[in-house]
Specification:
Blueprint (H helix, E strand, L loop, with lengths): L1 H10 L4 H13 L1 H6 L1 H5 L2 H5 L4 E10 L5 E12 L5 E7 L5 H17 L6 E6 L8 H15 L8 E4 L6 H15 L19 H19 L8 E4 L4 H12 L3 E7 L2 E4 L6 H13 L7 H4 L4 E4 L16 E3 L9 H9 L4 E3 L8 H9 L3 E3 L1 H4 L2 H15 L5 H25 L6 H19 L4
Parallel strand pairs: 3-4, 3-5, 6-7, 6-10, 10-11, 11-12
Antiparallel strand pairs: 1-2, 2-4, 7-8, 8-9
Helix pairs in contact: 2-6, 6-18, 7-8, 9-10, 9-16, 9-17, 10-11, 13-14, 16-17, 17-18
The protein binds NADPH dihydro-nicotinamide-adenine-dinucleotide phosphate.
NADPH dihydro-nicotinamide-adenine-dinucleotide phosphate binds next to helix 10.
Length: about 450
Amino acid sequence: MEQAIADCIGRDPEQREFHQVVREFLVSIRPVLDRHPEYRRLAVLERLVEPERMILFRVPWMDDQGGVHVNRGYRVEMSSAIGPYKGGLRFHPSVNLSIIKFLAFEQVFKNSLTTLPLGGAKGGADFDPKGRSDTEVMRFCQAFMAELFRHIGEDTDVPAGDIGVGAREIGYLFGMYKKLQNKFTGVLTGKGLDWGGSLIRPESTGYGIIYFAAEMLGRCGETVAGKRWLVSGSGNVAQFTAEKILHLGGRVLTMSDSSGHIYDEEGIDAAKLAFIKELKNVRRGRIREYCDQYPQAVYVPADPVLGWNPLWHYPADCAVPAATQNEITGQDARHLVAGGVRLVCEGANMPSTPEAIAVFREHAVLFGPAKAANAGGVAVSGLEMVQDSMRMSWTREEVDTRLHAIIRAIHRTCLDEAAAYGREGDYVAGANIAGFVKVASAMLDQGLV
Ligand code: NDP
């Protein structure tokens, strides 16, 4: 195992995010390796940390003034052991190969946990949609798909959204794929409802996170109701996390974007959340504008020099980081514990640093890791693929019921697998072990490919 980590670092020394996720994962599956020597003998780990395929490509596009820009596009197809590659596309200036590989690696085991036949992949570009007009975003998406289309397909690789890729971008990407292939297929998920999308897909990641949190609280005889929640981000995941907290009677105190956060001690109620959705999804404004509408709230600009995020220091009961990776440092985790937080459920992918996770462990904070807690999004993407194949659509209630059942099953599986390896109540170990065993055994069944 140490060899697999050393090989990873030696091969790509600059890929810090990828090393971080691999280390966290391999350490927690050690008991499985000890019980199953065949995984070591057949180099399952060495194979898992090397993507099956990586596609890097140039994306040239023209802005509204006629200026030419060149971005870099990525698609990392990590594993197809249990199904066609599946995972989102991220458009953000920070995107690089390390980030896409870490996300693709996480996606393999998250998809395995959903019980659906989905392999793992991730992609994106170092393009920043912020401040770009709709026509510029459309031209970028078309240029991106002009290369990606030859590598994807409804039975090969099915991308979806992620940071910076929402309904608008999926529409432009799908339109270009259809034109180039002359085929109307379910090649992307997160599609519009009138052209192959699934009800509940926009809500699914956020709703799933709170379904998972409710299961965790339920084990301690507690509920979401009446609890004070700190939420970061104000995009797709954060919005529907907040919505489900409100449905279940909790109080949301914070939301944020990359410029800063708002704190509303009275709570962000349904009307205020509707304002945030309109602000972010339609006007594409900044979270600070919330305080123009609701002056009792406080806006605190982000300060990268600070080294910790003031959003995590308010007194609260529960927290859902739903913005980006490594957004909770060890210092932030100590603030959360000092503020009374007893549950952290990860909405974003890898939002907690290893130091933060150590603090949560030390203080017995209930901790729901991303690959289990935010699997609702890809689960409903899987259900969208099923509906597309059948050329039919299920009702909102039907999809929501299936989503809820999948999340309950993931929660149960995490606890059962953790207990089977003597790690009672450890969701991190449970999620990693359950995700790994299914993929590893499929790899053994399929031989050295
Ligand atoms: P969105 O683009 O809709 O929203 C992202 C939010 O996070 C925005 O508020 C954004 O602010 C903020 N943010 C992004 N980067 C940073 C940063 N570097 N520092 C501070 N804030 C930042 O993305 P999603 O809501 O879809 O994704 C959020 C997280 O959830 C990601 O980690 C993603 O991988 C994960 N996820 C998403 C799923 C989905 O179905 N969409 C499924 C599973 C996981 P700003 O607008 O200023 O950039």
